[in-house]
Design brief:
Layout (H helix, E strand, L loop, with lengths): L5 H9 L4 E3 L6 E4 L4 H11 L8 E4 L14 H10 L4 E6 L6 H4 L4 E5 L4 H9 L4 E6 L11 H8 L5 E2 L13 E6 L2 E6 L9
Parallel strand pairs: 1-7, 3-5, 4-8
Antiparallel strand pairs: 1-2, 2-6, 3-6, 4-5, 8-9
């Protein structure tokens, strides 16, 4: 699919900008992961606590593999079963993931949303990965529509991209840590995990 202003989206991100966009769960706010100033801008926009990390999202899981240590078998099983979709996996990060994204933690959350607009944004941006969080101020509800995202982010984000009819479901992703063979649910969201 094509979306309007593709060159402008790339230009905004390459110049340290922040964009808001639809995903399959709730609206997101993101930037290029290697731009520390853009990441700081996200924290400023959201008034987000410094100890809360961002996550990395892409249109394809293999775009995220450089950012993480080799995945445990159980993580690969969960990716195969639930991604693209509403599952964020927290795994050991690699040296390629900047500390300013992960709040100096040694783990990083990765996700592949199931939304055509988001996938297209990732296809066109350098590196095909965004450092991301939800498009709302901290301690406020997540944006579930273009109107809510626009109201939250107008004048703060550099662009709020239309959803082109690809709406989000409005329920956050399940956040699951994978540590060797152990799973830890950090947030119960849309997906109920089972390994059967």
């Amino acid at each position: 699919m094509q979306i309007r202003n593709e060159k402008k989206i790339v230009n905004v991100l390459e110049n340290g900008g922040v964009i808001a966009y639809v995903t399959d769960t709730v609206w997101g706010l993101g930037c290029l992961p290697y731009n520390e100033q853009a990441v700081k801008k996200i924290y400023e926009i959201k008034k987000r606590e410094a100890q809360k990390p961002l996550i990395l999202m892409s249109n394809e899981v293999y775009n995220l593999l450089d950012y993480v240590e080799p995945l445990p078998k159980i993580a690969c099983m969960l990716i195969k079963k639930y991604q693209p979709g509403a599952l964020t996996l927290v795994v050991k990060k690699s040296k390629n993931t900047p500390d300013y994204i992960t709040s100096n933690m040694d783990t990083v959350g990765i996700r592949v949303p199931d939304n055509e607009v988001f996938k297209r944004i990732c296809e066109i941006v350098p590196g095909h990965v965004l450092a991301t969080t939800s498009a709302n101020l901290s301690h406020q509800p997540s944006a579930k529509s273009y109107e809510q995202a626009y109201e939250n982010m107008n004048g703060l984000a550099d662009m709020v991209i239309e959803d082109y009819g690809f709406k989000c479901k409005g329920l956050e992703s399940t956040v699951c840590g994978v540590f060797g063979n152990d799973l830890k649910i950090f947030r119960q969201g849309e997906i109920n995990i089972s390994l059967d």
